[in-house]
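Internal ticket - ligand job 392, pyridoxal-5'-phosphate:
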Amino acid sequence: MKINSNYLNLKDNYLFADVAKKSSEFVKKNPAAKLINLGIGDVTLPLCTAVVDSMQQAVLEMGQKETFKGYGPYQGYDFLRSAVKNYYASRNVDISLDEIFVSDGAKSDVANILDIFSKDNSVLVPDPVYPVYVDTNVMAGREIQYLNANEENDFLPLPNRSIHEDIIYLCSPNNPTGAVYNYDQLKQWVDYALENDAIILFDAAYEAFISDEDLPRSIFEIEGAKKCAIEFCSLSKTAGFTGVRCGYTIVPAELNFEGNSINKLWFRRQSTKFNGVSYIVQKGAAAVFSSDGMNQVKESINYYKENAKLIAKVLTERKIYFIGGKNSPYIWLKCPNRMTSWAFFDFLLKEANIVGTPGSGFGYNGEGFFRLSSFGERSDILNAANKLKNVI
Ligand code: PLP
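stdout (structure tokens):
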């Protein structure tokens, strides 16, 4: 019996463990200190009432013989896929029900999609980045090419037309940087993918944070994208579903490689290895797209965005370079005085009792940068903004 030795090539990621360790050591030494956590990548507001009501109703249905449900359809119930279809239609993107696959979240699908691609593909991953893209390719034994996202390109790298790649990861709004691609920039990626017969894996987990009308929320707003892209979406950050688990992936019918329908291959993969998301959760998810649901989740998103504004205001006043925080829950700042990411972490912890996330944990280009999250209580954010102002 041999293991998949690619797993031995995975680098240990101690980022959040180290953050927790340093924070608890600090509290032990300074018991009076009250830490403010701006390092969280998880939502803090509860589910909205439209979702709770819908899920309660679904639970009651499951308890009645007449309305009980067993296994659901592989791609998700029509009521949820129709809601997703209408959500896209409201932005003039035409998606058919067969192109929508309901899942338990974007992380699983972003990882599992690699099942249907050959190991021989070249892979382009932006740096800094959500670590799942890297680790899942290492597990599959693929070599990764990194795409530098840095201050020079405003953390929005564009294709290098002299290099060929097969699989391209894009995340917009980005985790950790909060940077968002505009139409023209995404068009350049779509054109590149079409020219190179490449596929774009577009992670739109934070699309609901985009309020700027001039920015695309879906890659399918770009002409030609249906021939070269898959989009991964999630209700985790949109509607506080991190603990409920529901997302959806759009695999266009037009997406073909070597004469094979990617949609059909993904259906084959999912119907073999995945038995769907519970009826109760799908009912809750569908309620997100109702008019009450949309208004209620918008309120929560606006709450986080207001938090981000308060932090951004201090950074602007203190003339600290940062991006994000406008169409994203994350603020990505340059550590002052050329501090390393961890030096700034220690400084903020000691001087302001604020916990953030060192940028170096997200990749080579993250060194010297720092991620602050706007997921949190308003009172904590106000407190943190005041403290930040005093120490930077
Ligand atoms: N994609 C990005 C960029 C994320 O930051 C996250 C979670 O933090 C995910 C996907 C995972 O989302 P889900 O909770 O739907 O699995």
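Auto-summary: The chain is about 40% helix and 15% strand. The first helix runs from residue 15 to 29.
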